Amino acid sequence: MPEMLDIVDENGVPTGRSVPRTVAHAEGLRHRTSHVWIVRKKNGAVQVLLQMRCAAKDSYPGCYDISSAGHIPAGDEFVGSALRELREELGVDARAEDLHECGLRRFRFEAEFHGKPFKDNQVSKVFCLWLDKEAEDFNVQKSEIDYVKWFDLDEAIRAVDEGTIPNCIFPEELGMVKEFVQKASPLGEAGCEAD
Predict the structure, then answer these.
(1) The Nudix hydrolase domain covers which part of the protein (predicted)?
(2) Residue 62: which region, alpha, beta or left (left: phi > 0; alpha: psi -120 to 50)?
(3) 64 domain residue, yes or no
(4) pTM of the model
(5) Residue 28: which domain range?
């Protein structure tokens, strides 16, 4: 059975029509995704966890990406989907109240991967999650991710801006993460455990 996605309006509200994921990407139909950036404070700096997408991914294989992200299946919602992706991709059991909403992003792009056209048209809800856990302690989903790695946030922003690491990260989204951590309390949340 194919993975079904709700077609949505520009605010991420379902229109009542659902299509297989392959159709959404072949035709560039607007659908929803949840993006979760995992952050921690270490050695006086804020770090962000990036995943390395495996070579079999249908888009951007072998690139650094958001800590955890995924399409929202038809009938599901942003938060529930974000929590499920964290569990499936990284083995992290978080609660809805652990997710800090950073905003909504809309974007479209077209590319070619594995010799096929790929049209992406997304409405994404962006979240941050404080979690201090070593990279090797995450239980990564090997069919999706090769490994995860912590980067100092400022270093990650610079590397994405300058293109010094292979990535499929939107600088605007890392900017949302930076804005969140600058507003977050320096005490309390940084030590939260979510698993």
Answers:
(1) 29-173
(2) left
(3) yes
(4) 0.88
(5) 4-189
